[in-house]
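Teaching assistant here, posting this on the class forum so everyone can see the example we discussed in section. The complex has two components, and the goal was to see what a joint structure prediction looks like when all of them are supplied at once.
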Amino acid sequence: MSALAAIFVRDLRIAVRVGGSALMGVLFFLVVATLVPFAVGPDLVLLSRIGPAILWLAALLASLLALDRLFAADHEDGSLDLILTGRAPLELVVLAKGLAHWLTTGVPLIVAAPLIGLLLDLDAKAAAALMLTLLVGTPALTFIGLIGAALAVTLRRGGLLLAVLVLPLAVPVLIFGVAAANAAIVGPVPFGTPLTILGALTLASLVVGPFAAAAALRQEME
Amino acid sequence: MRLSAFDLACRRGGRDVFGGVNFAVASGEALTVSGRNGAGKSSLLRMVAGLLRAAAGRIVLDGGDPELSVGEQAHYLGHQDALKPSLTVAENLRFWSDFLGGSDASTEALAPVGLAMLADLPAAYLSAGQRRRLSIARLLAVKRPIWLLDEPTSTLDAAAQVRLADLMRTHLAGGGLILAATHGALGLDGVRELRLDSAPSASGARP
């Protein structure tokens, strides 16, 4: 097995074992999104109007939740030292870790979103559009988050710094994610326009995230 | 193959830890690095592994692969064991073997360190000494000529220390070289020693 496949498979295994991040992230997502109907009350018109925004906010918070351990755990147990003495480029290692992280924390959110859609009175078409926006947009959340996760490696309580660093950078993703979902549900903007921009944000973060995160990791090991 | 350092200096947190360190280790040789706590033994090993930038001086490897850095041709055995508690003993070893470019038969390296019986046990249940032995198995699963060992015998019992000495002897006989930071003896014959506490800092303000 190649070095990159090895680290991808290892991170998948760790995430799905007991105490891993996969189940925690999706449970957090469900709890946060479920709280909103209780807080807002049984106003179905209002709920279905703010539904996409609620689901996107919950997805943003849930994808931040496990991110601070992504590199910090490897730093604390010495794995990061060995990764740096490996022959695989650090940028690609970061990319492989990011993909594994998205598969185990991002994809479960997308699958769980229609369940919450029922609570928010989203019909089938709206739920499908929302799932599509999450599918296109959540990789951007993970890969922007990689930068913050790499910067927070050597700090205790790095999770707080991570949130402060990453949330402002995630604003464009949030705007176009919710805009695309709303466009599909109420219009009048065509669904494709914000979705395309969301896709562009994801592609850009796929390139920038690993390079920036690898640079931050190298800097911190000094 | 020959690993040499010229006029190496280390600065950590604005304080000079050591300076003017020279050494050379050739294939088949072992060099122990000794000194008081805080003398910079671990920092020296991390510099050779490429994990820490030297404040001055350089590290040269003659006869190695010119395409690879020194760290990429070295095994670094640090204080931390780089094991994931939720993975089994065999999974941990197989991962590092795959990642560092070892063979597929990596789990065979469990037998020399006496962990073959525990291959399917999650690493969370290992004792400190067993964790250390699993880390040492990594050095056997992937062939790299330079071993950088930071306190390799800590947490090992007497029998495991003897076994480690045998493994190091085999490595040296196969043309490898060893740089080890240690307070005690490694159990090898003809080992040279590099002492790092030549000059205590002038201020004398050490805790």
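For the discussion questions: The CA atoms of residues 59 and 98 of chain B lie 28 Å apart. DSSP finds four helices and eight strands in chain B. Think about how each of these relates to the inputs above.
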